[in-house]
């Protein structure tokens, strides 16, 4: 039976220049491969070694990129290896099959959101009313499913984030702070639900996963085995679970380690 490997992308497998965490002497830094260009500028990277590992993984398992990015943001990434048949975007709101969103899956997601949580417009209005323009750079709505802010992190009041999390919790939403972005996402909008659907379609009996943020926790808990890097929201809160490997590596070398763990387990699933 095929093994399904569902992995978050940003700060898990791919890294912006600010997130690389190249703490070694310059002469010992790993060679990097650019995997995303935006507005004619290189944006995201992985090590060349990680690129080779991902190529091997694509040949050995059903690899499913699993991201909070919108479809447009995901499709500008050029990952090495065979093109994934399945990809999960918008935190589970879109299930891509050969690059095209499955309309039946998206309709099911919209039905759940309508039934189980406060509407998007209410959350968007609250953010616009309470977020201070002195530290907010951008307000964004993603795929008409969730909202996020791009902020000046050093000016962001910690108490405001905590208050927002409590307010959102009471309305069936989750708040996640990732780098310079604050996400407000409906609780029914999950990566794990979409991954279970892909596993059903692929006939996979073993699911592996990796992720670094609060929005990846449900994905990791739904997998048979999972890994998180030594950075990110989950590491900062010492989050773990019985089948989760908490890796010490931080930055782009963590992406390389995660791919090694995926491949080792795919080749020796027991």
Plain-language structure description:
The chain has nine helices and 15 strands. It is an alpha/beta fold. Helix 1 runs parallel beside helix 9. The protein is globular. 43% of the residues are buried. The model has no long low-confidence stretch (mean pLDDT 96).
Q: What's a quick, concise take on this entry?
A:
The protein is globular. The chain has helices at 48-60, 71-75, 103-116, 120-130, 158-169, 191-202, 217-222, 233-236, 252-267; strands at residues 3-7, 15-16, 32-38, 41-47, 62-65, 86-89, 94-97, 100-101, 136-142, 146-151, 173-178, 181-186, 206-210, 225-228, 244-246.
Strand content: 25-35%
Distance N to C terminus? 13 Å
Which strand order spans the largest sheet, edge to edge or round the barrel? 5-1-13-14-15
Number of helical elements? 9
Based on CA inertia axes, which overall geometry fits?
Answer: globular
Helix fraction bin: 25-40%
Largest sheet: 5 strands, parallel
The Cα radius of gyration reads 18 Å
Low-pLDDT segments, ≥5 res: none
DSSP strand tally: 15
Quaternary state of this entry equals single chain
